[in-house]
Structure formats: C-alpha cells, structure tokens
Amino acid sequence: MIPQHIAVIMDGNGRWAKARGMKRHEGHRAGVESARAVVTRCRELGVRHLTLYTFSTENWARPEEEKRVLFDLLVRFLKGELSTLVEQDIRLRLLGDIGRFPMAVRETLRMATNKTAHCRSMTLNLALNYGGRDEILRAVRSLLAEGVDASKLTAEQFEEALYTQGQPDPELVIRTSGEQRLSNFLLWQAAYSEFYFTPTLWPDFGAEELEKAVDDYSRRQRRFGKTGDQVQPTDSIASRGSAG
Ligand code: IPE
Ligand code: IPE
Ligand code: MG
C-alpha cells in the first residue's frame, strides 16, 4: 500500500561531501537533486502529502556561511521548480515560523505558496525553521489566547492548531545517513508512524531507494495498540480504540 503521507529527514549532506573531499555546501547542492527526485517519484506513486525536513529550529546554530548557502539553494530550488510544481499540480505548504528567514527567502516562499495554492494532486510540505516542540508550544499558546475551554479540548481541536492542520499524520518517516533519531521532527504527528532508517547519505538517496522504503512499509503490520489478530489492513489511528 502507498502511504498517503511520507515525511523525510534528509540527513547526511555534510558527510557525503566530506567523503569526497568537498566542502559541505557541495553536499547540500547534491542534496537538492535528491529532493527533486523524491518529489517527482512521490507524485508518480500517488503519495498525497510529502514532508521534507529542510531546516530545523536547531539548525540556526550552524555557521552563517552554511546557512547562507542553504537559503540560497532553497530560493533557487523554489524558483527553478515552480513551473514544474504547478504543472504537476503540487501545492507547496510551509511548516514552521518563516518570519526568521531573510526577506528574500520569505518573499520567494510567499510567492511559491501563492502560485501553487490551487494545486490539489499532492501537498509538498517544507519544514522550515521547524521544531516539534516549538510547534506544540505555539499550538498551546494560540489555544490559550483563544480562551479555549480546557476541559473540552480534544485531540482534533489541538491538531487544528498545528502547522500540519488538515493533513493526515505521516504513515512513514524516513531518515537517511544512519542516524536513528527524530531530531525534533513531527513529535505529535509521528506518534504511530512507521520508521525507515537507512545508512544511505541523503545525496545518494533517490527514487529507487524511496520505492524500497515504500515497499518495506507496505509489508509491515501496523497495530495501533491492538493484537495482531484484531487488526485490519485498512486500520488507521482514527480507529485505534476507545481512548481515541
Ligand atoms: C542535512 O545534512 C541537511 C540539513 C540539516 C540542513 P547535514 O548538513 O546535517 O549533513 P551531516 O549530518 O552533517 O552529514
Ligand atoms: C535534522 O538533521 C534536520 C534536518 C534534516 C533539516 P540534523 O543534522 O540537524 O540533525 P542532528 O543534529 O544530527 O540530530
Ligand atoms: Mg546532519
């Protein structure tokens, strides 16, 4: 079965470059090509939501020079891909507070989200200045500011205050480069995700390995707390039981 939502922690660009005696930014440049390939193949496979962890709240700690390169690559990617996104009916959405990015980056992001707002075949979420804890805190703050009735607050209502509002949780979370951690990614949404960890460095990850991950996922049994016998192949977290 093809997951509706795949989320990817694109890691290992720096190590890929280092292994080749190149500068880190060459790794990021190569990483953009992997992102392009994965977007295209997800669209072909019929994945409805793809989330790419592009810049975390912790990544601000990186050297200024590296951040400049990353932002520059992001702007180029969006400008270069815009017509393809529209052609392929892919809507761009942003997860994270983009207010902290330089003006030129913010403007490109706004332009690209506006120009793809009508697209419906797939949603491409770019997680930018994204952190799961930050997202949860912001949701709590906004609900408090609205004066929500604490005793009546539901999980569904809470989810409406998250950046991913209106989108299903990722069934599959992929992380490249051999690291086996979430690094503050989709803490709420990944509660019942399946994980696929691969030692492949992000610039070496492409359409083929994406299919391998999807194939691996499709052979797993998701149980959502039930016994293996109770579970139906179509079960989702929505039918996970009385506590839901
Ligand atoms: C992922 O590659 C890209 C970002 C986090 C922006 P890294 O830059 O983290 O590469 P490594 O982990 O140092 O190899
Ligand atoms: C996670 O990668 C963030 C992104 C892929 C954008 P990092 O390289 O920043 O994660 P850590 O620091 O190794 O956990
Ligand atoms: Mg890394």
TrEMBL record:
CDD domains cross-referenced by the UniProt entry: Cis_IPPS (cd00475)
GO biological process: polyprenol biosynthetic process
Active site (UniProt): 11, 59
The family this protein is said to belong to: Belongs to the UPP synthase family.
Name of the protein this chain belongs to: Isoprenyl transferase
Annotated HAMAP family: ISPT
Keywords from the named record: Magnesium, Metal-binding, Transferase
Disordered: region residues: 221-244
Keyword Magnesium: yes
InterPro entries to which the protein is assigned, alphabetical: UPP_synth-like, UPP_synth-like_CS, UPP_synth-like_sf
Cofactor(s) this protein cannot do without: Mg(2+)
Function description: Catalyzes the condensation of isopentenyl diphosphate (IPP) with allylic pyrophosphates generating different type of terpenoids.
Organism, scientific name: Paucidesulfovibrio gracilis DSM 16080
Pfam families cross-referenced by the UniProt entry: Prenyltransf
Binding sites annotated in the UniProt record for Mg(2+): 11, 194
Cofactor, free-text remark: Binds 2 magnesium ions per subunit.
Binding site for substrate: 12-16, 24, 28, 56-58, 60, 62, 175, 181-183
Keyword Methyltransferase included in the entry's annotation: no
Complex formation: Homodimer.
One example GO MF annotation: ditrans,polycis-polyprenyl diphosphate synthase [(2E,6E)-farnesyl diphosphate specific] activity
Polar residues bias locations: 229-244
